[in-house]
Design brief:
The chain is of the alpha/beta class and about 550 residues long. The chain contains 17 helices and 22 strands. The strands form 6 sheets. Strands 1-2-5-9-10-11-14-15 form an 8-stranded parallel beta barrel. The chain has a 5-stranded antiparallel sheet with strand order 16-17-18-22-20. It is globular, with a radius of gyration of 23 Å. The chain starts with 9 loop residues before the first strand and ends with a strand.
Length: about 550
C-alpha cells in the first residue's frame, strides 16, 4: 500500500515572488489564492509554501520573529486560513516551512536572552565567554565569517550557523523543545498538511572544542545525538496524517534509509549532493555525469525502503535551464522528462514549468540575497576585478525573480515596482503565452505530470541506470507492473546510445517526447540529438 504523497507531485511557492495582489511589489497570500486554479490545472497535488511568518527579512523569512503570526507584507492569519480553506476545497494540500534550527535576533526569546546571563531565556540559545580577539572556536558560518557574534555588554558570544541575525536555538534545553513542539501542534491543529523542515540536520552541535579537518560544516551537520530530537518530532508527526520532508544536509544516502523508511523520522528528505559543478568560477555549470551518479546512488540506496524527494530547482539555486540546459524550451522539457520519472516525490519550483532562466545581473544593486552581497564584499576587499560576475553567477536571486505570468508590464506579477527585477525574457516565457501553445514547456509539464500519476510503476517500480558512465546521456529503466525506458541527451552534442541486447530486442513504443522527430521504437544504436528526451513503454 502506498501513501498519498508517493503518487503526488508538489509545487514550491516562494511567496515574495509568486503573485502580488495589492500592487506593493511583493507577492502575498491573496495572490496565491488567486492563482490556485493555475496550479490545479498544472496537475500538482500539494503546495510547499516558503516562510510567510513574521520576520525582519534579513534572510527573506528564514529569520522568524514570531512563529504564530504572518508577516504584514503577505497578509494576516485570516488570509492564511482563507488560503488553506481554498486549497483544500480544490483538493490541494498545503505544507509549510518549519524553521526550528534558529530564530530571528528580533524574536522575543532572543530579545530577552540579550538582557543578561541570568535571564531565563539566555539558555534558549548558545552563549559562551568570548572576547573580540578570542572567540569560543574557529568554526565558520554558511554565510561567511565566524559562527560567533560578540555581545560586548556580557563579554559573551552567541552561536549562529547562518547570519548573525539568525541565532541558533539550544536544543539541549528542554524548555526550548517544549515551546517548539507546542508551536508545531498549533499549526497541525489548524489543519495544514505537513512541513518541510528547514536546516533540520543542524540542530545538534559538536562540543565547542571540536577541531575542523576536511569538512568545515562537520561540527553542525547531522551530529551524533540528533536522533533523540528527531524521534520527538516523529512522534508528533505520527499523531497527524501529514507529510514531512527534511532539508537534511550531511545525511548520506545510506543513512537516509533510516530517516525515511516506514519507521523513519520523516517521509522523505531532500539530498543536497547532486549539484556537482564544473567549469571555472563565474562560468560554472552542472556536471551531468556527477549529477547522474549522485541521483543514481540515492535511487539505489533508498531502493524499496526509503523515499526520495526529487527536485532540480528551488529557492536556493540558479535555474536549471541555465546551468544544465541551454535556456531553450527543448532543454527545459528534457530536464523535466529526465527527473519527473525517477522514484520519489517530485517537486516543481515556481517558473520551472515555464522554462524560466537565470537573470542577467548587471549591477550589485539588483541583488538582494545576503550571502551573495557578503561574498561580493569579500571579493571587492581582495580587489578582484570579476567580483560582480563571480558573486552573481550562482546567486540564489536567479530563482527569486518574480514569476512570469503574461506579457504586460512586470509580466503581470505586480502593478507596482517589483522587489526584484523581472527577467527581461518574460515576453516569451510566461504563463499566458505558454498556455495557448500546445508545444510549450508548460503544456509538456502538464502532460508529464498526468502520465506520472496515471502509471503506478513510476511510484512503486524499481530504478535501473543504463549507460552509467556516459557524460551526456541520462537513461534509465523503471520496472513495475509495466516497464518504461527514459532516454535523455543532456548536452549540446549529437550522441549515439548503444543499448544492451536484453533491452533493444524487446518491443518498445514511444509514449512521449520533446521533439516531433523522435523514433517510434527502440533500436540497438540510437542517434540522439542535443537535448532530445524520449519515454518508451515496453509492449
Amino acid at each position: 500500500m502506498t501513501n498519498w504523497w508517493q503518487n503526488a507531485v508538489g509545487y514550491q511557492i516562494y511567496p515574495r515572488s509568486f503573485f502580488d495582489s495589492n500592487g506593493d511589489g511583493i507577492g502575498d497570500i491573496k495572490g496565491i489564492i488567486e492563482k490556485l486554479p493555475y496550479l490545479k490545472e498544472l496537475g500538482v497535488d500539494f503546495i510547499w509554501l516558503n516562510p510567510m511568518y513574521k520576520s525582519p527579512n534579513v534572510d527573506n523569512g528564514y529569520d522568524i520573529s514570531d512563529y504564530q503570526d504572518i508577516a504584514a507584507e503577505y497578509g494576516n492569519m485570516a488570509d492564511f486560513q482563507a488560503l488553506l480553506k481554498a486549497a483544500h476545497a480544490m483538493d490541494l494540500k498545503l505544507i509549510l516551512d518549519l524553521v526550528i534550527n534558529h530564530t530571528s535576533d528580533q524574536h522575543p526569546w532572543f530579545v530577552e536572552a540579550k538582557k543578561g546571563k541570568d535571564n531565563p531565556y539566555r539558555n534558549y540559545y548558545h552563549w559562551q565567554d568570548a572576547t573580540e580577539s578570542k572567540l569560543p572556536n574557529n568554526w565558520q558560518s554558511f554565510f561567511g565569517g565566524p559562527t560567533w557574534t560578540l555581545d560586548e555588554t556580557s563579554i559573551q558570544a552567541y552561536f549562529h550557523v547562518f547570519a548573525p541575525e539568525q541565532p541558533d536555538l539550544n536544543w539541549k534545553n528542554e524548555a526550548v523543545r517544549k515551546e517548539i513542539y507546542q508551536m508545531i501542534r498549533w499549526w497541525l491543529d489548524m489543519g495544514i498538511d505537513g512541513f518541510r523542515l528547514d536546516a533540520i540536520s543542524h540542530i545538534q552541535k559538536e562540543p565547542w572544542n571540536f577541531q575542523i579537518t576536511a569538512n568545515p560544516w562537520a561540527p553542525f551537520m547531522n551530529v551524533a545525538g540528533i536522533d533523540e530530537y528527531m524521534k520527538d518530532l516523529q512522534h508528533i508527526f505520527n499523531e497527524y496524517d501529514v507529510m514531512t520532508v527534511g532539508e537534511a544536509s550531511g545525511v548520506s544516502s545510506k543513512r537516509a534509509v533510516n530517516w525515511t523508511d516506514k519507521d523513519g523520522y520523516l517521509d522523505m528528505i531532500f539530498e543536497l549532493e547532486h549539484n556537482v559543478r564544473m567549469g571555472k568560477p563565474g562560468e560554472e555549470r552542472i556536471n551531468l555525469l556527477g549529477f547522474k551518479k549522485v541521483i543514481a546512488r540515492w535511487q539505489k540506496d533508498l531502493g524499496q525502503k526509503g523515499w526520495n524527494a526529487l527536485y532540480i530547482e528551488n529557492h536556493d539555486n540558479p535555474r536549471f535551464n541555465s546551468i544544465l540546459g541551454n535556456e531553450t524550451s527543448k532543454s527545459a522539457k528534457a530536464l523535466a522528462l529526465m527527473y519527473l520519472f525517477l522514484r520519489g516525490t517530485p517537486f516543481i519550483y515556481q517558473g520551472q514549468e515555464l522554462g524560466m532562466t537565470n537573470y542577467p545581473f548587471q549591477d550589485i544593486a539588483e541583488i538582494n540575497a545576503k550571502d551573495t552581497l557578503s561574498y561580493y564584499e569579500r571579493l571587492l576587499a581582495e580587489k578582484n576585478d570579476e567580483a560582480l560576475k563571480l558573486a552573481t553567477a550562482w546567486t540564489r536571486d536567479h530563482a527569486r525573480t518574480p514569476m512570469q505570468w503574461n506579457t504586460t508590464k512586470n509580466s503581470g506579477f505586480t502593478t507596482g515596482y517589483p522587489w526584484l527585477k523581472v527577467n527581461p525574457n518574460y515576453e516569451k516565457i510566461n504563463v499566458a503565452t505558454e498556455s495557448k501553445d500546445p508545444d510549450s514547456v508548460l503544456n509538456f509539464y502538464r502532460q508529464l505530470i498526468a502520465l506520472r500519476k496515471k502509471e503506478e510503476t513510476f511510484s512503486t517500480g524499481t530504478f535501473t541506470l543504463l549507460a552509467a558512465n556516459d557524460p551526456d546521456i541520462f537513461t534509465y529503466l523503471r520496472t513495475g507492473t509495466k516497464q518504461f525506458l527514459i532516454v535523455t541527451n543532456i548536452s549540446q552534442k549529437v550522441r549515439t546510445l548503444s543499448l544492451p541486447k536484453k533491452i533493444w530486442q524487446k518491443n518498445w513504443q514511444l509514449v512521449i517526447a520533446n521533439d516531433k522527430t523522435a523514433p517510434r521504437t527502440v533500436t540497438q544504436h540510437m542517434k540522439i540529438n542535443p537535448y532530445d528526451a524520449w519515454l518508451f513503454e515496453q509492449k
